[in-house]
Amino acid sequence: MPPRYFKTNGHLLVCQGQNCQARGSVLLHKALWTHLERQSLAYYKTGGTVRLTESGCLGACSFGPALCVYRAAEGRLEEGWYAAVDFPLATRIAQAVQDGAALPTERKYGPE
Ligand code: FES
After folding, report:
1. Number of domains present in the structure of the chain
2. Which of 60, 69, 75 is nearest to 95 (CA)?
């Protein structure tokens, strides 16, 4: 029997490289997980569709904590890249993924 598949609206990755850790990414990741659990946004909660993973360096070391998000949108893969991410911004990104809404634009960089 294969593993259970959980429907996912999108996947957030929070960098845990050394530079981002020095700027608070350990606490950011932990706080975001707690938020996803409490708000039932985590993929394994009823109605939840958001995945969250630690990542290695995302290449924005001087601008951390860095976070990227991937999701399917209008038949293509949409990506969002963020620098200097704090908890409020991270929760807004997660909520946009949950709701299928436009990603926040503040502190976003990279492809449109
Ligand atoms: S250490 Fe986080 S982007 Fe490089």
Report:
1. 1
2. 69
CATH number at residue 16: 3.40.30.10
Find the 46 Cα to ligand 1 centroid distance in Å.
Answer: 33
pLDDT band at 87 (very low <50, low <70, confident <90, very high): very high
Asked if omega into 65 is within 30° of 0 (cis), the reply is yes
**Domain containing 105: what range?**
10-66+74-109
Give me the pLDDT at residue 15, please: 98
Q: Whose CA is nearest to atom 1 of ligand 1?
A: 17
| Ligand 1 shell residues, CB under 6 Å | 15, 17-20, 57-61, 64, 66
Model confidence at 92, pLDDT cuts 50, 70, 90, reads very high
